[in-house]
Amino acid sequence: MKICIVGTGGVGGYFGARLAADNNDVVFVARGAHRAAMERDGLKVLSDLGDVTIPAPKLHDGPETTGLCDVILLCVKLWDSVEALSLIRPLLSHDTAVISLQNGVEAEGLLAAKLGVKHVMGGVSRISASIESPGVIRHLGNLAQLTFGEMNGASSWRQEMLLSACIGAGIEAEIAPDINVEIWRKFVFLAPLAGATCFYRRRAGALREDTVSARLFADLVHEAAAVGRAQGIGLPEGTEEEIIANLSRLPAEMPASMLLDLEAGRRLELDWLTGAVVRLGAEAGVATPESQKVYNALAPVKEGRAA
């Protein structure tokens, strides 16, 4: 398959490197010091599941050299989504699949509006990975999964081909019969985890060990799930209890990616996570007081130290 990774951070770098190592035709979009290091030293992934090095990764310079793609994995930060569309459009054939592996629940709507519904496939990544240094991706823990599927639940050659490519590359992957549910299941976990860990400046272990912070996480989960159901998402009964229980299974030192950004003084995806719970809840008439509390506390630092 011809695959373009738009955003070679933790998620895009990890899965793109695995796919490239299995001789798939993968082109990476990267910039700055990260791109320079990849040009000079290659792309490295450090992982308990096995390290990977791509000595000479293909890097995107323009549509003339990259060409048309079968699948485009969108892995940039959410605020860069609109800018990424101008890069993506020239790479589209009539049936290219564009899959957001971003956080949040609004990327698919944006992509459909700007690129056309036929190009959008839903996707969910479950992984803790980040850029450790330019050209080097660090994967934490053993969780590294991809779930994807057509937005209407139909069968398609492109999802079957991507599944085959993932399996060949040793990536745990599956096709979801209802990808909208999977996108929201992740959101109902991630938005509360990001919000609670940033609110208390605690990683998963410390968060769950304290009764007060663990209660906040649970309340945020219930609010996010209520918003999803009000939006028409068929979250299964017991989703909230399952997600709350999952907190106890996380590595104690596991941070949400937004906590890493907060600690480093970088811009936060707050508006697309906790902020989205508040915003979408207001649209649906669902009260989200705990999410509002967390959003208000973090809003002053959401633009990072440079603001």
Question: What do you see in this structure?
Answer:
The structure is a single chain. The protein is of the alpha/beta class and 307 residues long. It contains 13 helices and 10 strands. Strands 1, 2, 3, 4, 5, 6, 7, 8, 9 and 10 form a 10-stranded mixed beta sheet that branches. The protein is globular, with a radius of gyration of 19 Å.
| Overall body shape | globular
Termini distance? Answer: 41 Å
List the helices and strands in order. EHEHEEEHEHEHEEHEHHHHHHH
Profile the largest sheet: 10 strands, mixed
Assign the structural class, choosing from mainly alpha, mainly beta, alpha/beta, alpha+beta, or little secondary structure: alpha/beta
Low-confidence stretches: none
Radius of gyration using CA atoms only: 19 Å
Proportion of residues in β-strands: 15-25%
Per DSSP E runs of 2 or more residues, the count of β-strands stands at 10
**Residue-averaged pLDDT:** 96
> How many helix segments?
13
State the helicity in percent bands.
40-55%
